[in-house]
Amino acid sequence: MSDLAAYESAHITHEDVIGDVAGYRRPYYKTQPEYLYPPYRSTIKRAPTRSLVWLPHTLSEITGPVFGYDDVKPDDADLTRQHSGEPLGERIIVSGRLLDENSKPVVKALIELWQANAAGRYRHDVDDHDAPLDPNFTGGGRALTDAHGNYRFITIKPGAYPWRNHYNAWRPAHLHFSVFGIGLAQRLVTQMYFPGDPLISYDPMFNSVPDDNARQRLISQFDWEGTIPDFAIAFRFDIVLRGREQTFTQSTRS
Amino acid sequence: MSLLSTPSQTVGPFLSIGFSALAVDALAAEKPGGERVRIHGRLLDGDGKGASDGVIEVWQANVHGRYASPEDPQNKPIDRAFRGFGRVLTNADGEFRFSTVKPGRVPGPGGTSQAPHLAVTVFMRGLLKQLLTRMYFPEEAANEADPVLKRVPADRRHTLIARRGADDALHWNIVLQGEDETVFFDF
User: Fold this and answer.
1) Average pLDDT over residues A149-153
2) In a domain, B150, yes or no
3) How does residue A5 score in pLDDT terms, banded at 50, 70 and 90?
4) How close B31 gets to chain A, by Cα (Å)?
5) Considering the domain boundaries, does residue A136 fall inside one?
6) A201 close to B (CB below 8 A)
7) Is B92 inside a domain boundary?
8) B157 domain residue, yes or no
9) Does residue A127 contact residue A121 with C-beta atoms inside 8 Å?
């Protein structure tokens, strides 16, 4: 490499190559669900039917919104303290680390959580399951990850509930997680399940992920060390977002 | 040792419990520079019915073509009051409405310049992972040379370009299936 070429490769900042960005790694084979998965019936009328168009990651996909303490108050991570009384059910602590595929912690990232109450009922107009609402439980919360990518919620363990997708269909107990990474391409919404739940293996949503190892990453682990005596048992759920390609993308100019 | 990413799962029908707190339908502050735009649309399923349980998330650059993100290395002005993020939950008819300013152009690959666009993410019941699409602006000469629009088959490009209505708002539907199915990206 000539001195000039070496200089240029180390100082690629001029305007016309600023758009050449290292993108995020594409999902590894079978580790993400496809849009169409007929056992989950609602996908049939909502999955795209035409070919997706391959998108090179540009500045628009490697950047993303930044959230902060104006958006999330420390109390937002405790779903048991949003009303005058305590919600019914089993109090739990759910914590974990938010990392990218390169094992780098994702810092000050927004995580949103929502869930059913202990009886398996959501505080939502559309939920007509014949189970009681809890006046002391809304079921929504938010947290920002700390400098090491850690997050922590206090909540109550949600109940299972029926959902009519197929005969005798019951969703296993789960928490919904919405995660913002650094780049738009990292955006992730997922669900966390609880270890040992016999409903998991019957669940089309869980089973929509083709790879078994990938599916298992949706199940939290009992966290004895995080469990607080006389207060709450804990579960651990680490979340991994896509990582950037390590190689620097050179300009495609000839 | 690298890790593998966590699989996506659907938001389900009760997403508003988690998403309402940070919903934003007016992206720009009171007196922004640039062209102010109102955007109206519907999210339509495979039966042509409005989806009442979806959420649209918008990500865009400011009027100068700079993203409010530390990942944007450009030396262009940042507007502290403009985050560039919007989130609108669809109503009972599948409608969404938001207002913003038309973004400037941002660099694309290979020394290109991208036409003004909004990156739009869709979550809903029945989607096991989000859809990613873009909304481009009508009467915009830069669309012709946009490096992303160029990758879209010519007969489908119109699905990504809003049209100006008699009410002066920009109209843009997100059609999940069928004849005018919106272009979604493999990203």
Assistant:
1) 98
2) yes
3) low
4) 21
5) yes
6) no
7) yes
8) yes
9) yes
* Token couple for B49: 């019915």
The verdict on whether A176 is a catalytic residue reads yes
- For B1-33, write each residue's pLDDT tens digit: 589 999 999 999 999 999 999 999 999 976 668
CATH number at residue A175: 2.60.130.10
The mean pLDDT value of chain B amounts to 96
Q: What is the average pLDDT value for chain A, to the nearest integer?
A: 92
Overall number of domains in chain B: 1
In whole angstroms, give the CA distance from residue A24 to residue A244. 4
ipTM above 0.90, yes or no: yes
Report the domain count for chain A.
1
The residues, ordered by sequence, that sit 6+ positions from A166 with a Cβ below 8 Å of its Cβ are A39, A41, A204
Answer yes or no: are the C-beta atoms of B87 and B19 closer than 8 Å: yes
Q: Are A129 and A162 in contact (CB under 8 A)?
A: yes
pLDDT band at residue A254 under the 50/70/90 scheme: very low
Check A97, A121, A142, A174 and give the catalytic one.
A174
Contact B111, A19 (CB under 8 A): yes
Q: Does A46 reside within a domain?
A: no
Residue A252 falls inside a structural domain = no
Is A171 known to be catalytic?
yes
- Single-letter amino acid code for the residue at B141: A
Contact predicate B31/A30, CB 8 Å:
no
The reply to whether A127 falls in a domain is yes
Who's near B1: CB < 8 A, 6+ residues apart? A103
Structure tokens at B116: 């003004």
Q: What is the mean pLDDT of residues A142-163?
A: 98
Residue in A25, A49, A58 to test binding to B, most B beta-carbons within 10 Å: A58
Q: What range defines the domain where residue A72 resides? A: 66-241
Q: Is A8 on the interface with B (CB under 8 A)?
A: no
- Report the C-alpha gap between B154 and A84 in whole angstroms: 58
Q: Which two tokens stand for residue A16?
A: 């016309």
Predicted model pTM: 0.94
Mean pLDDT of A32-50: 98
CATH number of B64's domain:
2.60.130.10
Q: What is the mean pLDDT of residues A78-86?
A: 97
Element (H, E) at A206: helix A204-207
